[in-house]
Amino acid sequence: MDKPLSQYLDLDNPQNLDAYKTTGGYQGFETALNMQPQEVQKQVSDSQLKGRGGAGFMTGIKWSFVPMGKDAPKNKYLVCNADEMEPGTFKDRWLMEGAPHLLIEGMMIAAYAIGADVAYIFLRGEYRLCATRLQQAIDEAEAAGLLGNNINGTQYSLKLHLHTSAGRYICGEETALINALEGKRANPRAKPPFPQVVGLFGRPTIVNNCETLCNLPGILKNGSQWYAELSGGPDAGTKIYGISGRVKNAGLWELPMGTTARHILELSGSMQDNLTLRGWLPGGASTDFLLPEHLDTRMEYDAISKVGSRMGTGVMIVLDDKHCPVGMILNLLKFFAQESCGWCTPCRDGLPWAVEILSRIEDGQGTQDDLDALQQLCGFMWIGKTFCALAPGAVEPLRSGMKYFADDFQQHIDHKGCPHGH
Amino acid sequence: MSNEIPILQIDLAKQQVVNYRDVLSQTEIDAIEHECSLYESRHAAAIDALQIVQKQRRWISDESLYAIANMLGMSATELEGIATFYNLIYRQPVGEHVIHLCDSISCWLHDYQIIANHLRNTLNIEFGQTTKDGKITLLPNVCLGCCDKAPALMLDGELVESLNIETLDNLMQGLSRGQNG
Ligand SMILES: Cc1cc2nc3c(=O)[nH]c(=O)nc-3n(C[C@H](O)[C@H](O)[C@H](O)COP(=O)(O)O)c2cc1C
Ligand code: SF4
Ligand code: FES
Fold first, then answer.
1. Which of A371, A361, A372, A368 is nearest to A419 (CA)?
2. Ligand 3 centroid vs A394 CA: distance in angstroms?
3. Which of A124, A170, A184 to substitute to test the interface with B, most B CBs within 10 Å?
4. Are the beta carbons of A107 and A151 closer than 8 angstroms?
């Protein structure tokens, strides 16, 4: 099976520029440079590539809103979203540590396709090793004339800079990220206008996830047909899937889009001895719980939606029978309450309230009314009631957890304590 | 966590008299100027500037804050709004070493609380505090992105994975012997 991303991966000793080039690196970018930017956009559209940042929006369509041609604004920006802070997600770190040149090449292709002359990597502050390796790769590419003015003797020039953030989940939301890059407090912006038209410093801007960008070199080198055929299903290409929690060997694997969750669980060696699977989150903290009976679901956008959750980041978290579902939901909600940017009331006040109620239930002080209040809060913080998707993301594991683990909630209330002894 | 949240006071009168050249070193100034050159506006270098100064001085004092604001041409209150927004900018003094223990979901599923309690007992401090000798500050952190090797912590910016009591004790002994310093 082709592994267009992880074929370049070496976590101990990542390829330098020469090694990357010898194995086919930067051929995708050179192909792109010989095409018109709109042709590159079309090839990416044809490949059916969907964004890997969580929402699964078609990359080609996203780019198509950027003003192009002679009348377009002179400065445009490309930003790589490498703020990976979704709890339970560690795929972008893997790619950046193991194959820094793959991301740089992907960014060069995207920047060329939208006519951007400056690009930034927005990297979370904790990823120090990524920062060192990416900076090294940027320096190498600059020295080789792959970045800078008149690349390969063409009219095209591109500067690429690394920006290290200092730890705040909301910076991953693309309009908050733009504010953060401008040196403002990272509250999300109202849309419209969309960043593609009015983004960083008021100029047309594309923000793409790190994994999304890493898919571009293969698409340009091998064509959109090849890419679509990598998977057998409706979502093209491969995906970095992974799993954590109490499995034997947690980790990440590049697999065809649409691989089943059961296959991923099996690759991890399944649950640790004496533990049974009770539930799982398909793609990070902000996705709805699913049950063991859903394990044969194909991990692709529509299939997961049909069973009531979201693909999210595609990195699964499993809950075992020795850990309390209420405790797990409390831990997730504490994260969201802490990381709320505080801009809008339902999220700023609703999340700490949910945490307070959940703590009470977990401590055995909860009442029947508390369950009703939690349900109500789920409604107050749902899509359309808040300024950005952080609060609805927090509601997802809460509402699905209350549905699937209703007996556990009831036990906490009836027996005035946590049956798991938490 | 049990730490009292300090009330932040910005002395606007003082801000006017701080000239960044009196406070920041030439190395800091050069590094910040370089960051400024990478963006369309000087303000955009705010978070980089805070990190550059913190790297030299371990934390961001009021004086550093006024100086950076002065250098970037922004108000101190605006910069304070940014500095306090981020988990990794310290607006209070920290110890020689800073431990950030992950308390997010995969580490929770690997019972990070055992590690947390062992750290609190060994260091005799709560989260948010610094040991009396000023050596070690203990802080919680959201998911560190090594959920496959949970539980995990970050020590002075370096990830330490697959923690257990034994590896933790070795780490602490290393610190008290002055390694990693
Ligand atoms: C609270 C919040 C946090 C987010 N964090 C990230 C992140 O860390 N990385 C990321 O790529 N996308 C994140 N997103 C999604 C981005 O807003 C955006 O959809 C994504 O970067 C688009 O890239 P793509 O089109 O390549 O998927 C986050 C969204 C929200 C609401
Ligand atoms: S939903 Fe939460 S994170 Fe999003 S803007 Fe509102 S307060 Fe901020
Ligand atoms: S949850 Fe602890 S490293 Fe991800």
1. A361
2. 17
3. A184
4. no
Parent domain of A215: 6-228
Residue numbers of A between 85 and 144 with CB closer than 8 Å to B: 85-90, 92-93, 124-129
Residue A419 lies in a domain: no
The answer on A38 and A155 residing in a single domain is yes
Distance, CA of A103 to CA of A208 (rounded, Å): 11
Find residue A247's DSSP bridge partners: A271
B104-140 residue pLDDT tens: 999 999 999 999 999 999 999 999 999 999 999 999 9
Residue A193 corresponds to which tokens in the numbers above? 């206008």
A88, A166, A319 member nearest B143 (Cβ): A88
Q: What is the C-alpha separation between A148 and A157, in angstroms, rounded?
A: 6
Atom of ligand 1 nearest to the CA of A82: 9
Same domain, A171 and A311: no
Q: Which of A28, A8, A13 shows the shortest CA–CA distance to A226?
A: A28
Based on the structure, what is the number of domains in chain A?
Answer: 3
Same structural domain for residues A193 and A284? no
Q: Which atom of ligand 3 is nearest to the CA of B106?
A: 1
Q: Is A314 in the pocket of ligand 1 (CB under 6 A)?
A: no
The model carries a pTM of 0.96
Same domain, A127 and A32: yes
The CATH number for A410's domain is 1.20.1440.230
Domain endpoint, select from A320, A349, A365:
A320
Question: Are residues A183 and B45, on separate chains, in Cβ contact within 8 Å?
Answer: yes
ipTM of the complex: 0.96
